[in-house]
């Protein structure tokens, strides 16, 4: 059964210092560093730069909105298909090498053949390719030729026009800045009428046990609580009503992930169905996953499934499903900058809502920038509404050597440290049946293993409903 969390006391907040502090502390260094990088267009030394020095070159971000975590779907919700990014660009990096030793020579050759056939299907012919400083290749693909339109019900169609926003949705005063992802550092952009897609390579697909499962979360028995699971969570959630969307802001960190087979993420889940084979979810947020992406950068991601991760759904644009409409955001690309301990705090805002006219689920990023939509026909229960919304963090604990993992959640610090030190979700809202954004009225919080990762919620006039969450993993109280 679901674990009923204790309600945390509404903590006081450093209200006045937050708003002006979030985005400005590193602007001057960022501008100078970005100018130098664009002038030289020489990124060969990027991997040898110190963390502080490198981050100054990435400090362009706008507000984004989070996407939440699910508590019961927690168990299967974020296992990542093993993927590595090949350094096709010649840029030095520390991405893991391809591991094919588990395959016999004949099996490996056969799998390589299947991999290449699969890549022909998902890597569409680009009009232009942009080399990112982190080694990614970003292909600019004509919008109606993206993977979504391989779906039989979308074949021959084009992306839809923007829908009506929820009532009460106020765009933030700051205009969206396009350079919140690393691939924008080059100064290059995709042409109008195209969308940016992170290219998939052979090494990435060869990492998975089955080509058919590439880009999907492994099938796993879904429990109503996460006790005993290798997934651990600290989440806030609402349930018991009909939900037509959700909105939040999450600050972005670069948590340490202890080994290539673990991950750390912060996201929002929109959920419907039972926790069996008919579970429907829509997910979005940021994640650090060496196994999926081959590095330790936090990356913007999406996911969906309509059958509890069995045969439907995928990350990002790795299958026919999500329809991207934006030419400036690459789903799966690295985010910059990130928040720093006792330093600048950078958050992203995310809004997911159901278009009342056509029934599709749309995703908005930052100040009114539409990323795209999940067509309603992808789902069963979510064709109508969601029955639960969750926000929060999740990690995988592989218990290497019999000890709890030292993979960090959020900032790697416990919630009690507060602003500038702990990670947070703020301005949590849901979309009601009348397509209106309203505050949460019954937010509950839950931490699976509070000695390893914890959470505490509150409410005030500046942040509305909010919570701090996270932790270091292994410590004296979490052996």
Automatic annotation (TrEMBL):
Keywords: Membrane, Transmembrane, Transmembrane helix. InterPro entries: Glutamic_endopeptidase (IPR053168), Neprosin (IPR004314), Neprosin_propep (IPR025521). The keyword GTP-binding does not apply. Coiled coil: none annotated. The chain crosses the membrane at residues 57-80. Residues 225-479 form the Neprosin PEP catalytic domain. The keyword Repeat does not apply. Residues 1-20 are annotated as: Disordered. PANTHER family: LIGASE, PUTATIVE (DUF239)-RELATED, PROTEIN, PUTATIVE (DUF239)-RELATED-RELATED. This is Neprosin PEP catalytic domain-containing protein. It comes from Chenopodium quinoa (Quinoa). The gene is LOC110709186.
């Amino acid at each position: 059964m679901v674990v009923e969390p204790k309600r945390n006391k509404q903590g006081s907040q450093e209200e006045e210092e937050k708003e002006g502090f979030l985005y400005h502390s590193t602007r001057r260094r960022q501008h100078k560093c970005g100018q130098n990088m664009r002038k030289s267009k020489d990124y060969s030394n990027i991997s040898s730069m110190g963390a502080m020095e490198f981050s100054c070159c990435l400090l362009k971000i706008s507000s984004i909105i989070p996407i939440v975590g699910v508590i019961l779907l927690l168990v299967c919700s974020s296992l990542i298909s093993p993927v590595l990014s090949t350094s096709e660009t010649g840029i030095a990096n520390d991405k893991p090498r391809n591991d094919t030793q588990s395959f016999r020579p004949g099996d490996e050759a056969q799998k390589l053949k299947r991999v290449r056939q699969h890549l022909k299907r998902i890597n569409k012919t680009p009009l232009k390719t942009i080399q990112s400083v982190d080694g990614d290749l970003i292909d600019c693909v004509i919008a109606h030729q993206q993977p979504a339109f391989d779906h039989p019900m979308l074949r021959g169609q084009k992306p839809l026009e923007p829908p009506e926003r929820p009532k009460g949705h106020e765009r933030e005063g700051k205009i969206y800045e396009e350079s919140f992802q690393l691939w924008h550092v080059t100064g290059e952009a995709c042409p109008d009428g195209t969308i940016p897609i992170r290219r998939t390579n052979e090494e990435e697909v060869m990492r998975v046990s089955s080509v058919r499962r590439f880009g999907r979360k492994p099938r796993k028995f879904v429990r109503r609580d996460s006790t005993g699971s290798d997934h651990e969570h600290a989440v806030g959630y609402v349930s018991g009503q009909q939900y037509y969307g959700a909105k939040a802001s999450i600050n972005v960190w670069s948590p340490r992930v202890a080994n290539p087979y673990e991950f750390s993420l912060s996201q929002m889940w929109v959920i419907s169905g039972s926790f069996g084979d008919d579970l429907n979810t829509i997910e979005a947020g940021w994640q650090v996953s060496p196994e999926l992406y081959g590095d330790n950068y936090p990356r913007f991601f999406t996911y969906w499934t309509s059958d509890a991760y069995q045969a439907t759904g995928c990350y990002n644009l790795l299958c026919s499903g999500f329809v991207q409409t934006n030419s400036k955001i690459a789903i799966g690309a690295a985010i910059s900058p990130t928040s720093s301990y006792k330093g600048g705090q950078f958050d992203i805002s995310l809004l997911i809502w159901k278009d009342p006219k056509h029934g599709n689920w749309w995703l908005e990023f930052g100040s009114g920038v539409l990323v795209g939509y999940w067509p309603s026909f992808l789902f069963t229960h979510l064709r109508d509404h969601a029955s639960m919304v969750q926000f929060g963090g999740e990690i995988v604990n592989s218990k290497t050597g019999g000890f709890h993992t030292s993979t960090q959640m959020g900032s790697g610090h416990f919630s009690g440290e507060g602003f500038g030190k702990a990670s947070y979700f703020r301005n949590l809202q849901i979309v009601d049946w009348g397509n209106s954004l309203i505050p949460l009225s019954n937010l509950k919080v839950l931490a699976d293993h509070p000695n390893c990762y914890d959470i505490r919620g509150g409410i005030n006039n500046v942040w509305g409903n909010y919570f701090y969450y996270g932790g270091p993993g292994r410590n004296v109280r979490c052996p």
